[in-house]
Amino acid sequence: MTTTTPGPTALRGAVGTAHTRVEGRDKVTGAARYAGEIPFTGLAHGWLVLSTVTRGRVRDVGTAPVLGMPGVLTVLHHGNAPRLRTDYVGMLGTRPDPTAAVFQDARVPFADWPVALVVAETPEQAREAAEALVVTYDEEPHTTALAADDPGAYSAAGHPPAEVGKDLEAELAASAVVLDEEYTTPEEQHSMMEPHAATARWDGGRLEVVDSNQGTTWVRAELAAMFSLDPASVRVRSEHIGGGFGSKGLRAHQVSAVMAATELRRPVRVVMTRRQMFSLAGHRSPTVQRVRLGADPDGRLRVLDHRSLNRTSTVFEFVEPSASVGQVLYAADAHRTASHVVRLDVPSPTWMRAPGEAPGSFALETALDELAVRCGADPIELRLRNEPETGPVSGLPFSSRNLAACFREGARRFGWADRDPRPGVRREGHLLLGTGTAAATYGAGAAPSTALVTAEADGSFTVRIAPADLGTGARTALTQIAADALETVPGRVRVRIGDSDFGPAMIAGGSMGTRSWAWAITAAAAELRERLAVAPDIPPEGITVRSDTTEAIGALARKERHTFGAQFAEVAVDTATGEVRVRRMLGIFAAGRIVNPLTARNQLVGGMTWGISMALHEEAVRDRNTGRHYAPDLAGYHVATHADVPDIEADWVDDPDPDDPVGIKGIGEVGIVGAAAAVANAVWHATGVRQRHLPIRPDRVL
Ligand code: MOS
Predict the structure, then answer these.
(1) Beta bridge partners of 468
(2) Residue of 196, 218, 353 best suited for mutating to test ligand 1, as the one with most atoms within 8 Å of CB
(3) What confidence score (pLDDT) does residue 10 get?
(4) 669 flagged as catalytic
(5) What is the extent of the structural domain holding 502?
(6) Region labeled Disordered — which residues (predicted)?
(7) Which CATH number belongs to the domain containing residue 659 in this structure?
(8) What is the ipTM score, two decimals?
């Protein structure tokens, strides 16, 4: 079932072979430069100042003493910053988050809201002055805690509830087995290794921003709109990225850097600190989810009713669509899913790896496990009994659906057949052992992109696409894809990325980047080969073909397009301390054609590791009284460390996408989906104590 592959030196057929990252040597030797460390002559440094109150208005920014401090060049705040345009709808269909459109008015809608930027000759001078800056406020009362019954909860226009099939309450009343439970997940932070950083400068009438982001043309479009500039006069570069996970779009650092560079007429760099990222970079909202299931005695679902609630800020609406996972996974006679949102005095949440599916699958896949117990059914059998023929809500056919194959292969390799279903009966000294499983799914889409492919006079090829490689290995995968499409070897292909001048393309997000760019590269390469077949002479400047996949992707038939997976976990629970240790994890995925088994495994194992972290550790705790985080840093916010991560294996079944030129589906997010539920279900199996609230802290186990 595993993709077996010829070695990396094969003359043909690079796709499907293990290939180390093409920029790997540059990264480990430090030759690869990140946005916060690229040198510029005359560089000035900005330091963001964040509000110390949770809600209110800025009364005064005491700039005078600070302007006299060593090296200080300027202090930007709402009283002197240029006015920005914020009434546009951006590339991703939303208005900009005012958290990024900094210094436009005196209001403070949440704790650690940006109120000023201090710019100085050195980062140390900027920081010292920023810490000395006295900002006074008129404080207002605030509410930051999410409650299931908040009267302010509403259904967002972009995320309407879905209800199909028979009458839900009647079906529930007629169900032999009924489950009605509440599940919660906490605020979670995607605190990627590389903090947000941008350097802005004016260069011969063009604005250049060297930045760490998930889409250079996306950030370019936002900056151009906000500053009322011709997009052609803005260039955004983003060559190496140390993680994005959904948070690296337009944020306060780029906007404030552009403001300062414009005022000072010199390059200005703004880097977020780790602590600033906790409020300025977005996060995953806590969720409160109610799942009601009604089933026949054999576990066939009559009712699937999943309602999720998340909180957003008062300035930006972000819905974590947690309930939507059931729209893909299970058929039911009465099917209702709704993701609601409530506005509180908290920072704006954003996309965080598998937004919706990650917390949603925790609730739904735990509920399915509970239902299996109540029906006396095996949890895998129960899931297979509820496999839908078509999209449970849409009625559309699946492009391919290999969830059952994942469960079969996973069960075989994990040794599921030997499992004693009874909870709390496997002892090893003071430990209780258990195993659990859960399903995973994530959307598999493609979005219009352009690529430039050049046949060079020396016989090599250059490929250009605008977005960046977040660290996933996308650049390497694209090298392999281009090599195959050009009928050459990866060593003759140079992939250049991370420059908005290369033309519009899908961002590195939504598990859609590599697939979307591969499509464009394949199209351009095909045309280039046709041209070379007719006229093989290459001029010194090379021959360049530009592709645009808008039409091809627009012509795709409407189908349910998803990846799937089966997660398995084994845990040991200490009966004295309540400590949970994951002993092993296995994920088997149906995720399209795997371009590079090495980097794909990295991605999937990374997602599963994050699932362990989500299950057992991650929780950003906000003080109800102050509305602020107790510990906004990686000392206070626990993430899984090496000692927490055991033997994890990810593998896949054959599942090429029938409608994709390369067969790709996209693997960026499916690895985390269901992973926390598999761990939670294993904890139940070990102890008999059901875990409906994350993280599974010792006090929740004992
Ligand atoms: Mo991902 S959360 O779409 O960057």
Answers:
(1) none
(2) 353
(3) 43
(4) yes
(5) 24-32+451-548
(6) 1-21
(7) 3.30.365.10
(8) 0.98
